[in-house]
Structure formats: C-alpha cells, structure tokens
Amino acid sequence: MRSVDEHLAEILATVRPLAPLELELEQTLGATLAEDVTSPVPLPPFDNSAMDGYAVRADDLAQAPVTLPVIDDVAAGSTDLRAVGPGHTVRIMTGAPVPAGADCVVPVEWTDGGTVSVTIDRRAEVGHAIRRAGEDVQAGEVVLKAGTLIGPAQLGILAGVGRRRVLARPRPRVVVIATGAELVEPGNPLVTGQIWESNSYTLTAAVREAGGEGFRAGAVGDDPAELLDRLDTALVRADAVITSGGVSMGAYEPVKEALSPLGTVKFEKVAMQPGMPQGFGVLGDDQVPIFALPGNPVSSFVSFQLFVRPALDRMRGLPAGLPATVTARTTGPLRSPSGRRSYLRGVLSDDGTVSPVHGQGSHQLAALALADALIVVPEDVTEVPAGSSVEVIRL
Ligand SMILES: Nc1nc2c(c(=O)[nH]1)N[C@H]1C(S)=C(S)[C@@H](COP(=O)(O)OP(=O)(O)OC[C@H]3O[C@@H](n4cnc5c(N)ncnc54)[C@H](O)[C@@H]3O)O[C@H]1N2
Ligand code: MOO
C-alpha cells in the first residue's frame, strides 16, 4: 500500500497550473491573478471631501463662530469649480473635489446649514475632512501581485483602478460522474436494492467550495462503455474529472474496467481509512487529470479533501498540500486500523476539544453531515484514549 503522502505527491507532480486567460472582470471571482496590476492614476485621483459640509480656509475660522458667504455648491462629480477666496466658503458633498483655495472641510453638523451664508461654530485644522490624492495608491503602484486569489475586495480594486479585463488563471472546470447501477436521482422513487445518488452532489459542491466550477454529469450504471462515452463528452469542457465508485474488488467495477486498459490511470490502495481504493491518472490528448474516488460517501468526501482539493489549488496556481491541522483534545476514545491513517469525523468546540461523532462507518453520510472536522490518527496508532491530544482538519 502507498502512503497518503506518496499518493498526493504523485498527484501534485502530475497536475499543472491552468494557463492564464484574459478574463472579463465579472468572471474573475475565485480566479488567480497572473499579472502584477498597477494603477494608472493616483487613488483618490483628486483631493476630495470626506464629509458633507463646507470647504473653507482654516484661517477664516480662527474667530469661530463666524458667518461666511456661501459662493458655490459642489456635488460629487462636479467639474466646474470656483476657487474659495479668503472669507468665502462653498457647500460641498462627500466625494466632491475640494476647490482651489480651500484647505479644510467643516462638517454640516458644526454649522447652521445655510445655503446663502453659513454660520460655522467651530475651528478646524488644515486638511480636516479632506482625502488627499494618492493617499490610497500612487500612480504606477502595484495594487495586486501575480498569484493573488481574487475575492470580492480584490475584484473591487481591479475595478477601482479602471480594469475591464485581467490576465488570470480561471477556476478549474471539474466534471463529476457517479457510477453504480443501484443509484437513483433524488426525487424519484426507490425499489429494493436502490439508493438515492448523493456523491455527485457532495463532490460538485465540494469543487465549488474549493474554488472550482463543478458540473454534475449524472450517474452511469455498471457498463464501462457507457462510462467511456460519458468521459468523452466530459473531456470537451473539463480541466479535471472526478468519478465516484467502481474502483474496489467487486465483479462490476466500471471505472477500473474502463480506465485500466488505457494505461494512463493507475489504481492503488492508499493506507488510509476511509478512502483506501484510489484511482488517479490523466485522460485524452490534453492529459486531463482524473480522480477515481471510492464510492462510499464518506470515502469519496475524505478523498476529495486530501487529494482533489490540493490538486485544484495547484491548478489555480496557489500553494498546494495536505489540509492544515489544528491540535485539539479528543473527548472520546478513537480506534484506527493498524498501518492506515484514519480520518475520523468529529465536532470541534471553542474549548479546544473535538468530539468524535457517533457512526464512523464510511457509508454513514448522516454522521458526516454532523461533523465539522476530521480527526487524524497516524498509521502507527490503533487506539487513542479520551483526553489525548490529536491533530484535526477543519472542514
Ligand atoms: N472485497 C473487497 N471489498 C471492498 C474493498 C476491498 O478492499 N475488498 N474495499 C472496500 C472499500 S474500503 C471501499 S471504500 C469500497 C469502494 O468501493 P467502490 O469504489 O467500488 O464503490 P461502489 O462499490 O460502487 O460503492 C460503494 C458503496 O458506496 C455506495 N455508493 C456508490 N456511489 C454512490 C453515490 N453516488 N451516492 C451514494 N452512494 C454511493 C454504494 O451503493 C456502495 O454501498 O469498496 C469496499 N469493498
Ligand atoms: O477505505 Mo473505504 O474508503 O473504508 O470505505
């Protein structure tokens, strides 16, 4: 059996970052920048008011309260500005350019709000409530570096420096195919021997959560030819493919049967629990990575977290490796098969403890749904007493 680390190492040695594309701004959420982005102008581009109030010379407020004539009204977006001479003031709104001559803004709350003349009650320092040009970004300054993951705030600054398109690695497109003759789409009735298909829903959602674009291709039965056909269609639009089921030792293992003869996909036993049977390789001229995950629902979910998620990180041009762990104290005893690394399902608490959920079978999807953590038990450990320190992956 190969170790979890060996299996992941092979995956990460095979999977490559996706080629960068010119993406429209609206398409960039979750993409990874592939260029340094600079601002063509300073931000803010001009001195502007931080408050609704009056632009004035600070010197004119020395004897406050003072009453001054209001010579103009400046809204945000105004371009035609009158200079503010000594003893004058203009009414100004937040975001409006500060007219020449004025050196501070007095908020309307410090005044009587007059529009012809205004009485200002308090003095203000030079620069008060003025947002200076270039205070956020200088012209030519790099605002985001290549390799940055684009979230809402990053998307905001891209727009803020006037970009319509940027060079970025897109979110990987991942097609998910469930296999098994017993599978029925949720919403349809079951007969004896059938179960509702759930893995493709879990895995597609997991892809999306991991920053990919997940597509469900629908389940196929136990016929390897049907699977090959479905894969052909998937490869047209996929940067990676995930299958679930059909990889263990049974008489009908369509994934193994369909892919083994190709010679580009290997089936291995990985020393872990759950998730022991694993297939991985590449398909087609474009060498699209395929993850053939075991069918047990908890097994496919855990396999995704350990192997597919890091591969998606690599495709996105992000640092990739096993999920980070935190240390916690287990509230209950743990058991693990000798020679296999276990990923038991648990609930983390704020007090630094983790409680194993009831139902640790790799078919127990309801127990998985209660968990928010995977408790890692190393290969050489078979029993962990309650109260012990353990490493935990947050889900
Ligand atoms: N003789 C052996 N039998 C098994 C071994 C073994 O080493 N020797 N390994 C076991 C382990 S461990 C696992 S994990 C499973 C993996 O089996 P497959 O990947 O071939 O998956 P299936 O047989 O198709 O299904 C397993 C189980 O999961 C249910 N399933 C499958 N797909 C879905 C789905 N999309 N949604 C919901 N549930 C699904 C399926 O009905 C089976 O109950 O093999 C063990 N056997
Ligand atoms: O290794 Mo299997 O994945 O236990 O159910």
From TrEMBL:
Presence of keyword Nucleus: no
GO terms for biological process, alphabetical: Mo-molybdopterin cofactor biosynthetic process
Keywords per UniProt: Magnesium, Metal-binding, Molybdenum, Molybdenum cofactor biosynthesis, Transferase
The protein's name in its UniProt record: Molybdopterin molybdenumtransferase
Cellular component, GO, one term: cytosol
Source organism of this protein record: Nonomuraea maritima
Cofactor(s) it depends on: Mg(2+)
Catalytic activity: adenylyl-molybdopterin + molybdate = Mo-molybdopterin + AMP + H(+)
Superkingdom, natural source: Bacteria
Pfam family, one: MoeA_C
Entry-linked InterPro entries: MoaB/Mog-like_dom_sf (IPR036425), MoaB/Mog_dom (IPR001453), MoeA-like (IPR038987), MoeA_C_domain_IV (IPR005111), MoeA_C_domain_IV_sf (IPR036688), MoeA_linker/N (IPR005110), MoeA_linker/N_sf (IPR036135)
Pathway given in the UniProt record: Cofactor biosynthesis; molybdopterin biosynthesis
UniProt function note: Catalyzes the insertion of molybdate into adenylated molybdopterin with the concomitant release of AMP.
The MoaB/Mog domain, residue ranges: 175-314
SMART domains, per the entry: MoCF_biosynth
NCBIfam families named in the record: Glp_gephyrin, molyb_syn
Assigned protein family: Belongs to the MoeA family.
GO MF: metal ion binding; molybdopterin molybdotransferase activity
EC number: 2.10.1.1
